[in-house]
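Complex record, two chains
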Amino acid sequence: MATVPQPVRGAPRPTRPGLTLAQKRTLWAWGALAVPLLFFLVVRILPTLVALNMSFRQWDMLSPDKPWVGMANYQKLFKDPVFVRSLTNTFLYVVVGVPVQLILGLGVALLIQRVNRFAGLFRTLYFIPYITSAVAVAWVWRWMLQEHGGIFNELLHLVGIAPQKFLGSPTQALYSIVAAIVWQGLGFQMVIFLAGLEAIPTMFYEAAQLDGASPWQVFRHITLPLLNPTIVFSAIIGTIRYLQVFTEVLSMSNQGQGGPLNSTKTLVLFIYQEAFKSSKYGYAAAATVVLFLIILVLTVVQNKLITRKYEY
Amino acid sequence: MTYSQRRTLGQTATYILLVLGAVLTVFPFLWMIATAFKPSTDIYSLALIPKAPTLANFAKLFDHAPFATWFMNSVVVAGLTTVSVAFFDSLVGYILAKVEFKGRNIIFFAILSSIMIPTEMLIIPWYVGATKVGITDTYLGIMFPGLMTAFGVFLMRQFMEAIPNDLLDAGRIDGLGEFGIWWRVAMPNVRPALAALGILTFLGSWNAFLWPVIAIDSPAMWTLPVGLSYFSYENFNQYELVMAGATMAVIPVLVIFAIFQKQIIKGITLTGIK
């Protein structure tokens, strides 16, 4: 048996005996990670499981025991016309908002890329709405969209068009809110596309120029295909963003109810009302799980599409 | 038309489109500010520059509502959140990038996978938990969900990985401990990424609404967006007041943006393109 050197009592101990450098580093790593790990466990991972658990229980003011009810909350959700309406509205926000924001964002990015001077200034101006408070800008839009005295109707009046109800109309309100969200998100989209455009090697453009390609041909056969990963990424990020629309609707619909006639109510507003206005926590938790599942599927699709290699 | 003529024409058209778009983009802010400075009798006029500009709306704002308190609450919450995120996310990012130890990959995967969980799924358990612990209506109650972010850990890990190991070893030879190597050697090397993360965190926290509106009940604890939301609903037929409030929420952010524009746009690019 090998003799293990014993520390001599009273002798100076420069380092902790018995620990190799690697062991000491491991110890330090776990020590430094203790608080962050506890945080992620308690604030992220545990609440996820709790939400899942709540969604299978009748968890509200009427039931102190919070009994397990299996799929009952989910079954109730899909029979609840307000939930179904919120879900279809949310999809409407996505299918209208995402393409419009992508196309406008790409358009602005292409224009900015073409100019020689003031590109930085334009980028700044288009970016400003993105960093401002959604509550503040939603109210600015609400004021501009106001039926009586709002500037949109005043301008329509100047060109002889009858005033529109905008946020007061069940058919126009959702699109009016989408307009405000697109306006705010456009700058983000533009920055992402500008970065994507910069990543395309210039030699492709030079080669196309030598071949006498028209600007449209260059866009169609070089820019668009090489920008594809950025477009896919933006579409997914945008979809997740539009699935979570909340603040704008709360600020732009009457009393934050998602009206008129639930025509602007989104999934997240539905969750907010069920949980924090009606205290139906279990029921609302089930709706959050539905939202989570939709986002999960999207994320998986995103990973499939983006990990595909694009060779320049 | 010659080539150079066509080019000039194309450039001119591009500029015209860009200017038009920029005007449409900036207009809502101009209209907000214009309304905020108009007397209530004048807000339906289409003048972009008020005929008789007044500060009365701002005076009323501070009179009717504790806007200064909300402003301070936002400063405290966003400031502390930013410090916490910058400290912890870069520490965790550094360890996951540069310290080899058992269990590292599992930890990284666990943190990373929490990105996929939407906030909406967590708010109900957060609320129930915060109520139990009794921290609703406190700064801690507003801030705790955002004190560290998986996204920031991911970002900082990427930048920490790029630091040459020789540099860290040199610190070790100079007698620095593990903590000192992180703080004095690694941190100065990731300053741009840290700045981007810090500013984006501050802006995100400053504008945050969903959780603060749930976590805070008493008006004295409201952050600016929450206070603005309640204030606007209370005064929604006095748009000159609402716009003065909106201006108060937007201006500080515009000032920050004017100073840190480069870092902000760089941050968006870094985080958007992985």
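Note: Chain A is about 70% helix and 0% strand.
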